[in-house]
Design brief:
Elements lengths: L3 E7 L5 H12 L1 E5 L18 H6 L2 E2 L12 H17 L3 E5 L3 H9 L9 H14 L1 H11 L1 H6 L5 H14 L3 H5 L9 E9 L1 H18 L1 H9 L7 H4 L5 H7 L5 H23 L5 E6 L5 H13 L3
Parallel strand pairs: 1-4, 1-5, 2-3, 2-4, 5-6
Helix pairs in contact: 1-15, 3-4, 5-6, 6-8, 10-14, 13-14
């Protein structure tokens, strides 16, 4: 029998971590984080990592596993998550997977498509073109050859645009088409609970989170990371909340504008996540209201968890 994985997914700032933690305590579970930025050491405030107290009360996996100077990708995530799953099974505990990085969710549940490796020559040429014509122009090219991928990739997300164009160049097929070859296979026995909020409520929570992060010292956290001997990896530098404050500290924009950009980019991230999650089959969605009490939400999700598949 395949191991059972229960997922708690949703857009950024919807309450996944809090609800996942409370549910895990009730069902004797350990949590596997499925977040592409929580993997980095010392990137704590901007990634909204659970507190040390919570991580002591309920074991969390795939948090603080690599240095900010390292590149991390879905293949490394799946490999590490597979190990964590076996460790949790050996302790006869349940497995709760909590987070919102859709590509990692797809990789863990369906596997990785057998795409080509990186092509340094192509990437060097594309980087020069990006400087000449701009990243949005490359995104427009991607729209022509792979409209499905372009629809879910932000026009300024160079890393993902680069990979999608690279795959098309090397294979003649779109990355979105190649990724569908695993759609009928499941690596684990998976159940999905999705947390969903109205757009206005979601935006309000995002704005409140950004304000709280700044009060908690996010700017100082970014300063400390930039002062480290090893430079931040491209992936770490592009994280929402970090990229904008790096621009501020470099003198590009005032702090007030950087904070506003964090809010805007967080809302864009939530929109991208909603687009991804619409493609996920068999998700049981829980619509949450601003005045919902935590206890009642957890009870609703636990009732679903305890029900037969």
């Amino acid at each position: 029998m395949k191991p059972r994985l229960t997922f708690i997914i949703g857009c950024t700032a919807c309450g996944k971590s809090t609800i996942g933690f409370e549910l895990a305590r009730r069902i004797n579970a350990e949590i596997i984080s499925i977040d592409s930025m929580k993997v980095y050491h010392r990137m704590d405030i901007g990634t909204a990592k659970p507190s040390i107290e919570k991580r002591t009360a309920v074991p969390h996996h795939l948090i603080d596993v690599v240095e900010p100077s390292e590149e991390f990708n879905v293949a490394r995530y799946v490999e590490a998550a597979d190990r964590a799953i076996q460790e949790i099974i050996s302790r006869s505990r349940n497995i709760l997977v909590v987070g919102g990085t859709a590509l990692y969710i797809k990789g863990l549940t369906e596997g990785l498509f057998d795409g080509p490796g990186e092509n340094p020559e192509f990437r060097a040429k594309l980087k020069l073109r990006a400087r000449d014509i701009g990243i949005p122009a490359l995104h427009a090219e991607l729209t022509r050859v792979d409209p499905e991928s372009a629809a879910r990739i932000h026009p300024n997300d160079y890393r993902r645009i680069e990979r999608a164009l690279e795959v098309f160049e090397l294979t003649g097929q779109s990355i979105s088409r190649l990724q569908t070859q695993w759609d009928s296979q499941q690596r684990y026995d998976c159940r999905f609970a999705g947390l969903r909020r109205a757009r206005e409520d979601q935006n309000h929570r995002i704005n409140a989170r950004v304000k709280r992060m700044m009060q908690d010292g996010l700017l100082d956290e970014v300063r400390r990371l930039l002062a480290e001997e090893k430079t931040l990896s491209r992936q770490a530098r592009q994280a929402v909340g970090y990229a904008e404050l790096i621009d501020h500290l470099s003198g590009s924009i005032p702090l007030e504008d950087a904070v506003e950009k964090i809010k805007i980019n967080s809302r864009r991230l939530a929109k991208q996540q909603r687009t991804w999650f619409r493609r996920f089959p068999d998700v049981t969605w829980f619509d949450l209201d601003p005045d919902d009490e935590l206890e009642s939400v957890v009870e609703r999700v636990q009732k679903w968890y305890d029900s037969p598949p």
